[in-house]
Specification:
The chain is mainly β. It has three domains: 157 residues, Galactose-binding domain-like (Jelly Rolls, Sandwich), CATH 2.60.120.260; 80 residues, Immunoglobulins (Immunoglobulin-like); 260 residues, Metallo-dependent phosphatases (Purple Acid Phosphatase, chain A, domain 2, 4-Layer Sandwich), CATH 3.60.21. Helix content is 14%, strand content 37%. The strands form five sheets. Strands 1, 2, 3, 4, 5, 6, 7, 8, 9 and 10 form a ten-stranded mixed sheet that branches. Strand 11 and strand 12 form a beta hairpin. Helix 3 packs across helix 4, helix 4 packs across helix 6 and helix 8 runs parallel beside helix 9. The longest helix has 14 residues.
Length: 529
Amino acid sequence: MNARSRWGRRVVAPMAALALLAQPLVASGTEALLAENLLSYNKPTTTSSVEDETTVGGLAVDGDIATRWASAEGVDPQWIAVDLGGPAVVSRVKLAWEAAYATDYQVQVSADGKAWQDAKKVTGGDGGTDEITGLAVSARYVRVLGTKRGSVYGYSLYELEVYGSRTGGGDIEPPTAPAGLRSPSSTSDSIALAWDPARDNVGVTGYEILRNGNVVGTATTPSYTDTGLVSATSFTYAVRARDAAGNLSAQSAAIQASTQQGGNPGGTVIVVAGDIASPDLPETHRNTAKLVEGIKPQYVLTVGDNQYHNGTIAEYRAHYDKTWGKFKAITKPSPGNHEWYDKLNGYKQYFGAAATPQGKPYYSYDIGDFHFVALDTEPIAKGTSSKSEQLAWLKQDLAANKKACVIGYGHHPRFNSGKYGDDKTMTEVWNEFVKARADVVFSGHDHHYERLKPLNSSGKVDEANGVRSAIVGIGGDNLYTQIKKREGVEQAFAKHGVMKLVLSGKTYSWEIVGVGGTLLDKAGPYTCR
């Protein structure tokens, strides 16, 4: 977060040449002040990109300072545009930036949404709230084009407000709210919706469908099928109508609808994720915690870096506890390198006996036909004095196991297509899992998701003797987009979410659930060896 509060206000004067572009001009003085209205509220938006479906463009014009639009991270330029619904004279634009602000950007205007001209160029912005006054320029469309980021993230606006006056009259009456919203059917990954048509003085042109409060699709008829959803999960839906002028109706009454159970009915459901609670991104781990609530797992496994930046007890209480802390009683954690910044003191104090159930921060346990091994990989990666002790324990534990299936998890991945690449310090750990014919190993550390085929000790695909693995460092901290796929990668991407792992007898499968409940990846079912 930049040092300046987002509530700070900075007035930006228009460029001198603007008066030559503005036709017609708003009347000056008291007459202009009285004519000024908020023109952008709930009007249609378009964007260059979104971070995920909880940060879509419409959230920047909804009048709610708690919601926001956010672009994809780490890419320039990015933009958000709003259709005012008809010709207008724009007098001022107010921007409430989130921590991911623009230092350089342009406010642009257009009559048709295609040809744009600069109304104001800003350089050296410092976030907070920018108020650009004295514009007096004709436009139907207004766009904010970010060209230089003030952070490593993307661009994000809590609110984009466009003020001025409509010209030439036009339709300003919104449609009625749609009624009778219902769900006629569903599958394991889709929900069908239908509703009664809305009415309008001119004519309804379409509908917006909201899932869990976020717009996820549009329709021109009173029906819609929401697809790509995670199985056995409930969602809240509402619908609103638009007319040709962009006027938006009130929302329909909300309903709840659920997807059907997937391939393993009655199985044990487990959530897996790591790299979770960052003080800089409270909204993100709040969103992933909501996913866990919707999944309703029997267990939660963490693959390290549960709490940034130093894993202190104060940080755990201020951040992790307020979101993922709801699942503390069912959590079987493992620590990451950030927990070690506090020498595991905060980690052990927060999780209590669950942090060291067998006297050490590494341990094992059984669920049905599965033997789970939770590792503390930082001492192994750093080669500290406790490395040999943990490796000896791992070898003995795997040798003593009587279960048909073996799953390991810890922070550092052995094989990795992300920012940190393959980690040779984890070779001995990986080799023990290979010798034991383990089924799968989960890890974090790199902030992306990656699913790999079974790999042997040399990192080569070996379906008969290798171990399957997945990186699930997508629980809430900033994502790493530097992914260069190595041998054996089946899927890889940088999106926030969690893994829904399902155990059924001697088989296992998983779904990667993105923020908002979308299905990002599906794996299995696999049969244990």
